[in-house]
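anyone else get weird line breaks when pasting these?? whatever heres mine. first is seq + tokens for prot A
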Amino acid sequence: MNNLPSDLIETVQNALQEDIGSGDITAQLIPTENWAKAQIISREPAIICGIPWVDEVFRQLDEQVTLSWQVQEGEHVQADQILLYLTGPARPLLTGERTALNFLQLLSGTATQTNHYVQKLKGTSTQLLDTRKTLPGLRRAQKYAVHCGGGSNHRLGLYDAFLIKENHIMAAGSLSQAVTQARLLAPHLPVEVEVETLTQITEALAVQVDSLLLDNFTLPQLRQAVELVQKRAKLEASGGVNLNTVRTIAETGVDFISIGAITKHVQAIDLSMRILPD
């Protein structure tokens, strides 16, 4: 997902409708002819992500609003750094303030948290993956932000890759049966199987899965899995991962580490927008 999400315009439309509803009654206190200049400042260090969403917010509200970005998408910024100057009719500046900041704060928070993990993985061959544990309606936006932070995307949804978990195996009858059916259903899509034991790894390798999700394996078990698989499938570690453990997990030799927290437990970056005096 290196390119902008295809649903960006629709996502902004929905966010504006959610906030404005039948009209911004407070902004109506300002005369329509009044113009203003504003700035957005970061109150803490961050990786900035979400510039296209901010641009789209004000494009949809009033194309007379001009935006002069002082930073680029994916750039590291410091506390009290000015990110953006906005000039235009005062009403749309005020109306769009919260929606624009919501996107910029959330996506910058996602990118920043992702980058904290990526920095921990430097010098290893392990890639950081996101998950489907995203905020409803913002999956594509958050996965874009993961890329901004230096991470990689796992599958986008339930339609672009198989991930056969314990419940799928139980419902299908066996791991082998589930994988066989997946190959028949969509032979062009990758097949990943979640395993909990070394025995399951052996069974999965026998049916030539593309990758294995090692669920809550201990460090010794991860090392055993790497030794057993011998590069015959990609290995993804998941569960019990945090900034204190991610490096040690990577050093076992797994190919990927997936972390739901980078999108699910994201903390918004502290940003503020202020109307400047004349």
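and prot B, same format (seq, then tokens)
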Amino acid sequence: MFGAYNHSAIIRKRHSMQHHAQPPAPSPEIIAANVRAALAEDVGDGDVTAELVGRDDQARAVVISRTRGVFCGAPWVVETCRQVDPYIHVDRIAKDGAELTPDGPVMEFSGAARSLLTAERTILNFAQLLSGTATRARAYAQAVAGTNAQVLDTRKTIPGLRAAQKYAAAVGGVRNHRTGLFDAYLIKENHIAAAGGITVAVRRARDARPDLIVEIEVEDMDQFGEALRAGPDIVLLDNFSLEETAEAVRSNGGRVKIEVSGGIRLDDVAAIARRGVDYISVGDITKQVEPVDLSMRFS
């Protein structure tokens, strides 16, 4: 359960949406910025309650899980300790992706009692949120096991924590969709209307940035046919029924990748996957997160 982790940059390639067995964490700079923001809003100019404890008092602390789940957040935990007090020692920490069991140990720390008290909430906030995201992602990944479909996350993330939540989703076993508005085209209804149609929008995207994935959203089979003729990399079926999804897969004949989206929940995803689609994008993974219940105990 316990193990080391490595920081590295997220690598993205055109046409890939790569999933890694052990996905790379965001850069140390991104993680440090996340932690600075969290400590600024929590600690401000000082932890007045922690000052009730003697300056030289030492303590040990263990974090346990009260529920089952998938752990995620080790880089943020370690960085929180470093920023609060570089002399906090992280004695043990679960490896991201490890299974959590009720009453099982997740992390252990030693150091100045004041520092551990100050770091406690920020450590737990990151670990609970990211573990909850990874746990939700794992459920979706398991639901489509045995099919050719891959579940994708979306941009529906907590502001300021997109890289963190996308990392957690990948730890849970789903693939990352585009990071933001800058690294792939996703041409939706309003883009189509403003550009003057599906065909012209796809052509302009190809001409402007031939290195980027071009995906276009369609709302019915007529639009789907036009999209196929326009030649994007991916066609996104928005709120199609299961029957319409199956029809689109048959009509496609393998010409483009097909993605499905629109209010998808865990109970829906297996049936959609069996229709033969390539991707299923699910906002629920990052926006309907139930944090894993973790508790820190001092000794």
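btw re prot B: The two ends are 23 Å apart (CA to CA). Residues 1-20 have pLDDT under 50 and may be disordered.
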